[in-house]
Amino acid sequence: MTATRVTPIHPFHVTDRLSESLKRSAAGRAAARLATRAVPTHWSFMFAEVALYSFIVVLVTGVFLSFFFDPSSTVVTYQGAYQPLSGIDMSRALDSTLHISFEVRGGLLIRQAHHWASLLLLAALAMHLLSMFFTGAFRRPRQLNWFVAFAVFALCLIAGWTGYALPDDMLSGTGLRIVHGVILGIPVIGTWLAFLVFGGQFPSQIIANFYPVHAIVVPLVIVALIGVYVALLISQRPAQFAGPGRSNDNVVGIPLLPRYAALSGGLFFLVFAVILLISATVTINPIWNYGPSSPGDASAGSQPDWYMGFLDGALRLVPPGWEFELFGQTVTVAVLAPLAVVGGFMAVVALYPFIEAWITGDRREHHILDRPRNAPTRTGIGVAGVIFYATLWGAASSDIVATQFRVSIEAVTLLYQVTLLIGPIAGFLIARQVALALQRRDRELVLHGVETGRIVRMPGGEYIEVHRPLDAYEQWRLVDFEEHAPLMLRPDAQGRITVSQWLRARLSRFFFEDRVRPVTRKELRRGRGVESNRDHLLL
Ligand code: HEM
Fold first, then answer.
1. Residues 6 or more apart whose Cβ sits within 8 Å of residue 381
2. 66 lines ligand 1 (CB under 6 A)
C-alpha cells in the first residue's frame, strides 16, 4: 500500500500571500505609515474639508448641467414651459438654462445645488485662509501651502464669476457689461483686450469663450493644485494647537485610519446633505424673473454673488471725474485705481508669508499654531484686511442701502469711502490693543490663577481674595508661545546700513515693539510657590 501525502490547501492561502507581499512592498509600507499617522483635531481644520467636499459637489453637478447647457449667444424665440417668457427673444444659453430649470427632471435642483455649493466652496475657502492667517499656519514650512490655497481661492473666484455669466440672463449680462467697460478703460491695450476676451463687439462670443474656461480649464487647474496641496500635507507634519504633551517635535491627534477617515467621510455626507437641503428649499438665481440679458435695463439691486462684491464695490467708490487727457486720449483713473488697489491687496495677501518672514527674520519651522492674541500685530493686520475687504464688499450694496434707508447714494458712497480709509487703521489699532490686553490677562491668570470672589482675612488683619490656580491643560495652552523681538540694525563691514536693512528694522520694530513676554519657567515656579503657600495658609 502506498501512502499518499495530502497537502492541505487553505482557502485564503493565495490572498494571504498576496496581501503579505503587498504589505511588504514600498507602496504598502507607505500606506501603513499613512494609516497610523496622527491627525490633530480642531473645529477650524474643518473649513478645508468643507471646501473640498463642496468642490466635489460643484464638479458632479457641473458635469450634469453640461449635458443640457448650450453655450451659444445665437438668438432664439423662447417656446419652453415657462409661460411668462413665451415668445421672448433670448440667447440659446438662457433658453437652455430655462430648459434645465423647468423641463429637465431634477434640473432645477442640480442647478441650484451647483450654485449653492459654489457659494459654500468660496465661503469655506475664505474661512480656511482666515484661520491659516490668524494662527500663523502659513509660517515655515507651510509658506507654499498658503500660496496654493490662495491660488485655489483666486481660481474659484474666476470659476464662480464665469459661471455666473453663463446663463446670459439680465444679471449676468449686467456683470459682463461692467467687465467689458473695465477692460475698455485700461489705457492703450483696453480696446484690443476687450476684443480678445469677448471675441468682437459686446456681447459677441463671450458665453462660448467663457464656457471652456469655466467647465474645463479652471476646474482642471484647481484639481491639480488640490493635488499639490494634498502632497504638501502628506510630506509635512500636521500643525497643531498648543496643549499638554504637544510640542514642535511631535503630533498629538487621532489615527488617520480608521477614525479620522470615518469622521471626514461623515462630514462629506453632511456637507452634501446640507447643500441638497438648501437647494431643494431656497431659490437661488431665479433667471426666469430676470429675463434675457439687456444691460441697459439693469435696475438698482443688481448684485453679483457674495465673493465678487468687493470688486463691484471698489468700482463704486471712485469719486466722480477721476480722468485726464493724455496725447489726446482720455485716461480714466476710475477704472485703473480700483484695479490697482484690488490687485495690490490680492498680491499682498498672496505673498504675506514671505513678507512677514522677511520682516521678522523668523526662519524657524513652526508646527505649533499661534493663538491670534499672541501675534498682536499680525492679528491687527488681519483685522485691517478684513475691514478693507468688508467695506468694498458692503459698497457693492450701496444702492440697496440708499433705497432702504432713504438716503442719497452720494451720502452712502461718502460713508463707505471714509470707512475704507479710516476703518482698517482703526481696526488694526483696536485689534492689536485687544490682543495685547488678552495676553496680559493670560499672564495674570497663569501667575495668579482665577479670581474666586472669596475674600479671606489673614491672621495679620490683611484681606486677600482667594485665587484658584489653573489646571495643567489650561496653563500649558496659555504659556506655550514663542517670544519675538525687533531685529537689531547691524551695519556691514564698511559701517554702512542699506535702505532695505533700515526698512526691515523699522518694520520689525513696528511688529514687535509692543509685546508681552511669555511667562518664563522661573516666573511660573515663583507664581506657583506663592499660590500654594497662600492656599496652605487659607486651608
Ligand atoms: C470651482 C468650480 C466651479 C464654480 C465655482 C462654478 C460656479 C458656477 C455658477 C455660480 C454658475 C451659475 C449657476 C446658475 O445658473 O445659477 C455656474 C454655471 C454653470 N456651470 Fe459651473 N462652476 C464650477 C465648475 C463647473 C464645472 C467643472 C462644470 C462642468 C463640468 C460646470 C458647468 C456649468 C454649467 C454648464 C453652467 C451653466 C448652467 C447654469 O447656469 O445652470 N461648472 N457655475
1. 428
2. yes
- Dist. CA 39–CA 262, nearest whole Å: 13
Q: What confidence tens digit (pLDDT) does each residue in 8-48 have? A: 556 567 788 888 888 788 878 877 777 788 999 999 999 99
C-alpha dist (Å) from residue 3 to 6, 8, 10, 476: 10, 16, 22, 74
> From the alpha carbon of 167, which atom of ligand 1 is closest?
40
Atom 13 (ligand 1) nearest CA: 115
Pocket test for ligand 1, best of 114, 158, 211, 308 (most atoms within 8 A of CB): 114
Sign, CA torsion 172/174/180/182: negative
Q: What is the pLDDT of residue 10?
A: 61
Intervals of the chain under pLDDT 50: 1, 529-539
Are 183 and 190 a contacting pair, CB within 8 Å? yes
The grid coordinates of residue 168 equal 446670459
Nine cell digits for residue 264:
471626514
Place of cell 501512502: 3
Residue holding cell 463704486?
A: 316
* Ligand 1 in reach of 479 Cβ (< 6 A): no
Do residues 37 and 249 make contact, with C-beta atoms less than 8 angstroms apart? no
Q: Which atom of ligand 1 is nearest to the CA of 118?
A: 5
> Could you tell me the end-to-end alpha-carbon distance of the chain, in angstroms, rounded to an integer?
94
- Tell me the chain's radius of gyration from C-alpha atoms: 30
pLDDT given for residue 335 in this prediction: 86
Q: How far is the CA of 356 from the centre of ligand 1 (A)?
A: 36
167 lines ligand 1 (CB under 6 A): yes
Ligand 1 proximity of 166 Cβ (cutoff 6 Å): yes
Q: Is the CB of 58 under 6 A from ligand 1?
A: yes
Q: Does domain 31-297 have CATH number 2.30.22.10?
A: no
DSSP string, 267-302: HHHHHHHHHHHHHHHS----HHHH-B--GGG--TT-
For the chain, the domains span 31-297, 433-538
Q: Which of 331, 348, 314 is nearest to 179 (CA)?
A: 314
**Residue in the block written with cell 540694525:** 489
Residue 28, classified by CB atoms within 10 Å of its CB into exposed (0-12), middle (13-18) or buried (19+), is: middle
Sign of the alpha-carbon torsion through 22, 23, 24, 25: positive
Cell readout for 348 is: 499682498
The grid cell for 28 is 504598502
* Pocket of ligand 1 contains residue 159 by CB under 6 Å: yes
Q: pTM here?
A: 0.89
